Amino acid sequence: MSDRVHRTSFSENEVLRRELRIRSRDLFILLHDLRSYAQLNYTGFSKITKKFDKVTSSALRSTYMTETVHAASAFGEAAQNRLRKHMEAMAYAYGLAAQCTSLDDALRELKQCLREEVVWERNTVWRDMIASERMVDAVGVQSPDLQGGLQKSRRITNTQRQMLRLSLCTVVFGVAWAVPLFSGVEQQRCWAMLVYVSLLWATEALPLHVTALLVPLLTVMLGVMRSPAKSHQSLGASDASKAVFSAMFSSVIMLLLGGFALAAALSKHDIARMLASWVLSRAGSNPRTVLLANMLVATFASMWISNVAAPVLCFSLIKPILRTLPPGSTFAPCLVIGIALASNVGGMASPISSPQNIIAINTMHPAPSWFQWFAVSIPVCIMCDVCIWLLLLFVYQPNKSTPAIHQTRFTSERLSRRQIYVCIVTVVTILLWCFESQLAFVFGDMGIVAVIPLVLLFGFPTVLGKEDFNNFLWTVVMLAMGGIALGRAVESSGLLHELAGRIENIVDGMPVFSV
Fold first, then answer.
1. pLDDT, position 441
2. Cα pseudo-dihedral 296, 398, 390, 304, rounded to 10
3. Nearest to 317 by CA among 274, 264, 269
4. Confidence of residue 455 (pLDDT cuts 50, 70, 90)
5. Which of 94, 374, 378, 393 would be 24's cystine partner, CB 3.0–4.6 Å?
6. Is 234 helix (H, G, I), strand (E, B) or coil?
7. How far is the C-alpha of 293 from the C-alpha of 290, rounded, in Å?
8. Where is average pLDDT lowest: 64-78, 180-194, 400-414, 422-436?
9. Nearest to 218 by CA among 243, 239, 241
């Protein structure tokens, strides 16, 4: 066996060299983390005992550090020497696999990998990404209502300001209720409710998801829904509540949950970062090409993960680029703005990239297929990205200040079984959504297809667990449910038909572009 191994030319065995390169790099990073952990604990013991001596006026630090900390094997010189030798051995193995000319070159490349790993870990905590996005609107920092002179200098508190906005919205609601604009009772009441809810959303007198929860309550209590029969009789509270709740939990909500599940799996298992870094590593060193590549990656990532997670992903990947730019380079703001705008463009690229896309599909009869959506959205997104790219190049002219940039590194890694499983589930789900119209006799609706990734991904806690489910954007789900309920109320009351008729009379005879 050993003779056969020696006969194999190591320099020509690409698979073996790649495997050794990956393993030696990972072990080097782990050994470095172990050394940093030991140094951190040593410094912690030193500072804690120093603070203890200062507070208690004692002399514990020197004795404790000498007799206890220095005596521990983890902090001894022998352990540190062994750790350093292991790191040098990993650097030597990496140098052989990467065909470096010297050990210093191998150490230099490993330190570069280490810096990129640190940047990635500090900037993207993917397991908490959706939780952080969910908490953006839920958590706020408010100044406390202090007593004394500070309270006198402040004329109005946050709570008073919120109550004032709520009162003004309620007054406008009363005016819209009292001023007769429509002949039907249900239409007049629905108009008042529509104005009230729109103002609450616009002024944020109440949190957006709370206003969305208020919609079914107002719909039933105000009696705005009518029977779908030709008589159009007003529905009672019992029938109206059944109708509004059946409309709120529809296929739109299941599509949202299915999209959230795919985004959580792609982010948690590092698949989005691997794909993005692979694309960016082939963009070269020309600032124009790198800018366009980053924008396209941001747009593509926003198609499948949220508009918040996508730019954070791209920003973590461009950290090594930004760190090596010369002072005063205009490429840094150009690149950051390009990623932000491209992420917004990606929000309209796929039906699950934004909640409004799903709601729009639900209101169209017949609903467009995914192929039809992509046929319109992808060319539009590409044209938007190109226009933004040209505008940024014209405004910032990055090639003048930065002729060449640091190329993004990509280290090929073998996909784990979980990553392969997530990729298969994602691809199969997207294909089923694309061919939903042909498979309607099996699934009936895209919402039923969305159940498949929920079951397959959450069915195995090692893929997605209870914590990932709790970290869904439930405020967005509530907002979508409230919007669906409001749309059903406007349609059922006849207000939609009445407004459409009046708008048709206004625009009758106008040119197409004016309309």
1. 81
2. 20
3. 274
4. very high
5. 94
6. strand
7. 5
8. 400-414
9. 241
What are the residues facing 289 on neighbouring strands?
none
The C-alpha atoms of residue 332 and residue 291 are separated, in whole angstroms, by: 10
- pLDDT number for residue 307: 66
- Could you please report the per-residue DSSP string of 252-316? HHHHHHHHHHHHHHHHHTTHHHHHHHHHHHTS-S-HHHHHHHHHHHHHHHHHHS-TTHHHHHHHH
Q: What is the pLDDT of residues 297-318, one digit of tens each?
A: 888 888 876 666 677 667 767 7
Q: Which tokens in the block code for residue 390?
A: 């040209």
Distance between CA atoms of residues 19 and 412, nearest Å: 9
- Quickly list DSSP for 59-124: -HHHHHIIIIITTSGGGSHHHHHHHHHHHHHHHHHHHHHHT-SSHHHHHHHHHHHHHHHHHHHHH-
Look over the chain and give the mean of its residue pLDDT values, rounded to a whole number.
80
* Number of residues written out for the chain: 515
Angle subtended at Cα 384 by Cα 380 and Cα 385, rounded to the nearest 5 degrees: 120
The neighbour count for residue 1, using CB atoms within 10 Å, is 5
Cα separation, 86 vs 456, whole angstroms: 42
Backbone φ and ψ for 234, nearest 5 degrees, come out as: -65, 135
Give the pLDDT confidence of 335-385 residue by residue, as tens digits.
889 988 998 898 888 887 777 787 777 777 777 877 888 888 899 999 999
Side chain identity, residue 23: R
Give the per-residue pLDDT at 4: 46
| 116, amino acid identity | E
More confident of the two residues 113 and 171: 171
> For residue 491, is pLDDT > 70?
yes
The candidate with the shortest Cα–Cα distance to 493, out of 232, 241, 248, is 232
Burial class (CB in 10 A: 0-12, 13-18, 19+), 22: middle
Question: How far are the Cα atoms of 213, 297, 354, 359, 479 from residue 248, in angstroms, in the given order?
Answer: 10, 34, 18, 11, 10
Residue 226, φ and ψ in degrees, nearest 5: -120, 165
Cβ neighbours for 471, distance < 8 A, ≥ 6 positions apart: 128, 130, 131, 134, 264
Bridge partner residues of 234 (DSSP): 226
| Residue 445 CB contacts under 8 Å (≥ 6 apart), including other chains | 251, 436
In sequence order, the 6+-apart residues with CB closer than 8 A to the CB of 194 are 486, 490, 495
Question: Tokens 């208020």 map to which residue?
Answer: 214
Asked whether residue 155 carries a pLDDT value surpassing 90, the answer given is no
Give the percent of the chain with pLDDT over 90. 12
Nearest Cα to Cα of residue 362 among 249, 475, 455, 240? 249
Map tokens 């309209």 to a residue: 348
On the question of pLDDT at 175 being above 50, the answer is yes
Return the percent helix, strand and coil in the chain, to nearest 5: 75, 0, 25
